[in-house]
Write a structure and sequence with these properties.
The chain has 11 helices and no strands. The chain is mostly helical. Helix 5 crosses helix 7, helix 6 crosses helix 7 and helix 9 runs antiparallel to helix 11. The longest helix has 39 residues. The radius of gyration is 22 Å and the shape is globular. The two termini are 38 Å apart. The relative contact order is 0.12.
Length: 250
């Protein structure tokens, strides 16, 4: 019994179950579906939507856009950070841009970018923008984490830049990039869905969430929101599984 209680997955399952029970009690107490629907109704709605082929197309559209944006932002942030690490001028040059992206409200970016690009690409660009500073800072931190003693040793033994990357920078970067991925996934989904709700591209989760609000379909709002959260968790879990062998391979 102790093994089950100490098991992390078991504890998470219990916590989720308690929150669902609290949700059910609140829905029963309020007794007004337009304000709060019961978890059973939402679950039944999700099952109903799963039988509709368009539902999977909608999930695929949103998921693909956010995944593309996530990787574009990650690659761009990694590349700019490496350039900034080697050239101090570039670090000062890119710093205002990074700070501006971090400090500007997401909705401002969404409205501004809507003037320049089609709505079908909006969530890709917004997800990339949100993820970019995370990868930029974590890449710089990872490279700066290599101590001066190791760099001095590499200099004494005349290591090439390639050898320094293999034995010093990459092992240090793996931890920081893993953290960037875990943080960036959730933010990419939040920002990407916000972009869809405002831009309303056809056949997306954001469009369905907006329609649920317009037609006071609280059941649909909860259903699509929960599905979006689950997709975010699945993406994060998939990235962790892909990253784990790379992280352990020094």
């Amino acid at each position: 019994m102790e093994r089950f209680i100490s098991n992390k997955k078991f504890k998470i399952s219990i916590a989720i179950g308690l929150w669902i029970l609290l949700w059910e009690l609140l829905a029963y107490y309020i007794n007004e579906e337009i304000l709060l629907v019961s978890p059973l109704s939402v679950f039944q709605r999700i099952l109903k939507e799963c039988k509709n082929p368009n539902f999977w197309i909608i999930l695929g559209n949103t998921g693909l856009h956010i995944i593309i944006g996530f990787f574009l932002g990650g690659i761009f942030g990694l590349f700019i950070a490496i350039l900034s690490f080697y050239q101090s001028f570039l670090r000062f040059f890119f710093r205002p841009m990074v700070l501006a992206i971090q400090g500007t409200p997401v909705v401002s970016f969404i409205i501004l970018i809507l003037l320049w690009v089609p709505v079908s690409r909006l969530s890709i660009i917004i997800s990339a923008l949100i993820v970019f500073p995370i990868f930029y800072h974590n890449t710089l931190l990872g490279m700066e984490n290599v101590t001066k003693d190791y760099l001095d040793m590499a200099k004494v033994f005349c290591w090439t830049e390639r050898k320094k990357w293999k034995y010093l920078y990459l092992p240090s970067l793996k931890l920081f990039l893993g953290s960037a991925m875990c943080t960036g996934v959730g933010l990419a989904w939040k920002a990407g869905l916000a972009a869809e709700v405002i831009g309303l591209p056809k056949g997306t989760v954001g469009e369905k969430i907006y329609e649920s609000k317009i037609f006071l379909d609280t059941e649909g709002l909860f259903a699509y929101t929960i599905v979006a959260v689950l997709l975010s968790f699945l993406m994060e879990g998939g990235l962790k599984k892909l990253w784990k062998p790379l992280k352990s391979n020094h």
